[in-house]
């Protein structure tokens, strides 16, 4: 059995490096690495939303490991149960998806004519750890606007709008976010009266840009994030982002984005509520007019040659209401 340095996998299965010329590789040495690969490639962990714990959050729903576990007394082969080449294939795919560098020896598939060196064995386990630690951050994502809603009536108080994102199952929702996916909203204002009120709102909406809800946080180009992500949502609205960003007399005007889910145990629907508040109430400043647009935005993980795919949610953009 391996007796080298420990490779710690927080929330997964710890592995042990082999020592050349000393260790006899046991089934458990292969299976510990294979278990971590299988955990990442299997369905998402079924954890209750409301809090986020890194160690308990994983699973991309990519069908599980492409290799079966090794059994005691068997010989390590290139393919089949305990097949090292099959394990390499999974690790190579994970590295491609996450943009992780493939370590020496891991990218060259072993064959029946090869002897697996301790360095290649250890580098494979180290690549598994690389992928485990980076599992929420794909090499790239594609941003898309899936739907938009507009309003042309002027307003002086508060507008609200809801955008919902619906997934086919809770597993699809969790794996999408576990793989680095995000959903969000953006807004813009154009046309209308030429006045400083409209200019302030145009600049404010442009300044905050995309508001993205990830698995563990919310980001935007400006504003204050509550640091809440998908796994911290409940069935009641929580503020995830707010942005003031105006000059006097517009310093109290703000954009606020709130979020909730339809269930903390079986979530399939995420709702983002955009609230625009003109605190001046048409006393200190003018009405806001022109065309206001709110977009449903999606940040989809890219496969990057891995062969992975993540479900695309459907969206519904509600009307912009208020006065």
Describe this structure as you would to a colleague.
By secondary structure, this protein is α+β, with helices and mostly antiparallel strands. It is built from 5 helices and 14 strands. The model has no long low-confidence stretch (mean pLDDT 95). The strands form 3 sheets. Strands 4, 8, 9, 10, 11, 13 and 14 form a 7-stranded antiparallel sheet that branches. Strands 3-12-5-6-7 form a 5-stranded antiparallel sheet. It has a two-stranded antiparallel ribbon with strand order 1-2. It has 2 domains: 6-133, no CATH class; 141-322, no CATH class. Strand 10 and strand 11 (269-277) form a beta hairpin.
Strand count: 14
Order of helices and strands: EEHHHEEHEHEEEEEEEEE
Tally of individual domains: 2
Structural class: alpha+beta
The Rg value, from CA coordinates, equals 25 Å
Mean pLDDT: 95
Helix content: 10-25%
Q: Helix count?
A: 5
Instruction: Report the principal-axis shape.
Output: elongated
Contiguous uncertain segments of 5+ residues: none
Strand content: 15-25%
The major sheet is characterized as:
7 strands, antiparallel
Distance between the termini: 71 Å
Write the layout of secondary structure elements.
Blueprint: E1 6-7, E2 15-16, H1 27-41, H2 84-98, H3 118-133, E3 141-151, E4 158-166, H4 170-178, E5 182-190, H5 196-208, E6 211-213, E7 218-219, E8 224-225, E9 238-243, E10 254-261, E11 269-277, E12 291-301, E13 314-317, E14 321-322
Antiparallel strand pairs: 1-2, 3-12, 4-11, 4-13, 4-14, 5-6, 5-12, 6-7, 8-9, 9-10, 10-11
Helix pairs in contact: 1-3, 2-3
């Amino acid at each position: 059995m391996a007796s080298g340095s420990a490779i710690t996998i927080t929330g997964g299965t710890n592995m042990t490096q082999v020592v050349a010329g000393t260790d006899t590789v046991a089934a458990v040495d292969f299976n510990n690495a294979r278990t971590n690969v299988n955990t990442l490639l299997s369905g998402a962990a079924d954890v209750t939303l409301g809090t986020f714990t890194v160690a308990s959050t994983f699973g991309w729903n990519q069908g599980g490991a492409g290799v079966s576990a090794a059994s005691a007394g068997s010989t390590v082969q290139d393919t089949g149960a305990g097949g090292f080449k099959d394990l390499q294939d999974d690790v190579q795919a994970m590295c491609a998806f996450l943009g992780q560098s493939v370590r020496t020896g891991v990218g060259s598939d072993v064959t029946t004519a090869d002897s697996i060196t301790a360095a290649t064995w250890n580098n494979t386990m180290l690549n598994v750890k690389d992928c485990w630690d980076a599992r929420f951050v794909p090499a790239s994502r594609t941003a898309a606007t899936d739907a938009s809603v507009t309003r042309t009536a002027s307003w002086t108080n508060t507008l609200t709008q809801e955008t919902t994102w619906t997934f086919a199952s809770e597993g699809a929702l969790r794996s999408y976010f576990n793989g680095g996916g995000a959903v969000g909203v953006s807004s813009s204002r154009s046309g209308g009266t030429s006045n400083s009120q409209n200019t302030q709102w145009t600049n404010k909406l442009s300044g905050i840009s995309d508001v993205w809800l990830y698995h563990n946080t919310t980001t935007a180009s400006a504003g204050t994030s509550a640091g809440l992500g998908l796994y911290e949502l409940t069935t009641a609205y929580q503020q995830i982002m707010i942005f003031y960003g105006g000059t006097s007399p517009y310093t109290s005007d703000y954009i606020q984005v709130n979020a909730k889910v339809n269930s903390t145990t079986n979530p399939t629907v995420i709702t983002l509520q955009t609230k625009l508040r003109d605190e001046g109430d048409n006393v200190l400043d003018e009405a806001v007019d022109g065309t206001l647009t709110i977009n449903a935005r999606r940040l989809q993980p890219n496969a990057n040659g891995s062969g992975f795919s993540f479900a695309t949610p459907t969206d519904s953009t509600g009307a912009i209401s208020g006065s």
